[in-house]
Amino acid sequence: MALQRVAKRQGKWRVNPRRRPAGVIDVRAVRSLRLLALVVALVMPPMLGKAIAQTPVAATESAEFQHPGSTRRLILTYGTLQVPLSLEALETFSRSGQLMPALSPYLAALDPQLQHQFRQQLRFRLGLERSQLAQFLSSPMGELLLSVPEDLLHGSQPGLLRQVVLQAAATPEGLTLLNVIRHLPQDTRVDLKQAMQLWQEQQAIAQATRQQLEQIDRQIEQQIEQSVHRPVGQLNNQPSSAIATPPAPFPSDSRDLRQPGESRFEKQTLQLDDAKRDRRFQADLYLPTQAQAQTQIASQPQTPLIILSHGLGADRQSQSFFARHLASHGIAAAVVQHPGSDSHQLQAMLQGKTQDVLDVSAFVERPRDVSYLLDALERRNDLQRRLRLNRVGVYGHSLGAYTALALAGAKINFGQLKQDCQPRQYAFDLSLILQCRARDLPQRDYHLQDSRVVALLLFDPVSRSILGQQGLGAVRVPVLWGGSDADVLTPLLTEQLPAFSHLGSAEKYLGIIEAVQHVNLKLDRLTTTQNWAETKLIDAKPEAFQNYVNALGLAFTQVYVAERSEYRPYLSASYGRWLSQSPHRLRFLPQAHL
């Protein structure tokens, strides 16, 4: 299969985030962060490299761009070949779209769409203040991020790129790719051969991704043909008015699981103080106040419980949509806020109050937060009687998904991190910049598993390298795993799918959503707000994503946490097809084998 061929060719699972120039952070914002991260190396040289490869004779003469105080140009090297690139030509192209003779031999070979994308990348301005940018680039994660393009700049001194980026950010034009290039030292040399190799690997991964998605589509079709009593075509593109009565094979009394239930619920904010760890944190408990017949059975009067864990830089509110949905269906939900990796940590880093967006101890303390919360609920007599605490599920997004996997028995794999944490590999998997921070932990066997956890709901997990095949194979509980084909932080082919395939779970479900980003980060709010404490930097994912989580997440929870087998028909490929909506198409494959 394509997945295995790419893995075999590369020797290990790798990823290139440049599947397409579309952004991850508010679409355009992650473009700019990727430009900031890869600057010249992974954005411009691959495009120009392709153009040069298609040009019979590479230009050897270049007009010179006059910058205050000096003449500047960029030198693209390919072995012994040196190609001067006029910055004046780049500026003219950026401003008007005109291809000057010094640039035409390269960009004229690109199709109009790539030319347009390149021009947008040159012009896009990242609205970060210099002080905020300096804080991030000085952090351990920022240093790892810049190590990729610095590796492709011939003879560059350590810290050069950080200095150049900050100089560009301090000018009236601000932080644009073109302005960064202007501030590079005169005749800076970029290793075009190495950049082209990265681009070629990206093309191979993109092709393999398409092939893998086609294979998943075929498996979905096979499952639908085997289980649906009506033609597949009749299940596609159902109007919203038809969703109240889904077709067979769903239960005759089926409901639209995307819609809120009938249970009323109350929200309690719990103040948690773990003296042994000297750790104080909060959790929001959404507790149903009315037991509904459809969510309770006589032999299990206690209310099922799901714990929700947010991603890096997020907070309790980012997962509240699913917690409210569960509670309305009679399932309790507790949303934990993890100090050291939440929105307060992100804001503190940007204000210069802490060194990094992640306190490395979070890899250990996050799972312990969940276990401590369960212990605290057991100590409260009123809640201990109402909640079923010996059989809980955990929902996690990104770093929260890592948290859930650790609670289910996956252990940090320091050997895998040592193998994967190399500068070149950061270019293929941006999530490695986060995962590799775990190397700063004392290397010992951390026991984070909690036997009370019986099911996992995961979206965009950060897991492949930090847990490795051995760690993921230790997970034996049922898993609902969601990802996206547009996620450049935890890319589908070489981060999500291999990690999913390593799971030791006998019952696992794979959901892939089209055109949904890993996170919708609104960095521009940092320059317009005066109240840091109330600044919400991460926006909710699209409504379609929330609908899929609400419907499939509810069905999964009912089956594997509440033990309500009548919900199992909803965990089918046909139901996933029926839920799917454009432009965020859903591929849902139960019992996936990749």
How do you describe this structure in short?
Helix content is 40%, strand content 16%. It is α/β, with parallel strands linked by helices and 594 residues long.
Give a verbal description of the structure.
This protein is an alpha/beta fold and 594 residues long. It is built from 23 helices and 15 strands. The chain has a nine-stranded mixed β-sheet with strand order 5-6-8-7-9-10-11-12-15, with helices on both faces. Helix 1 (2-10) runs antiparallel to helix 11, helix 3 packs across helix 11 (192-227) and helix 20 (464-473) runs parallel beside helix 21 (492-502). It is globular. The model is unreliable at 1-71, 230-248 and 292-299 (pLDDT under 50).
Rg measurement, Å: 25 Å
- Percentage beta strand: 15-25%
What is the helix fraction of residues, given as a range? 40-55%
Unreliable stretches (pLDDT < 50, length at least 5) are 1-71, 230-248, 292-299
Q: Would you tell me the overall average pLDDT?
A: 80
Largest sheet: 9 strands, mixed
**What's the total count of β strands?**
15
Order of strands in the sheet with the most strands? 5-6-8-7-9-10-11-12-15
How many separate helices? 23
Tell me the overall shape: globular
- Structural class per helix/strand content? alpha/beta
Termini distance?
Answer: 9 Å
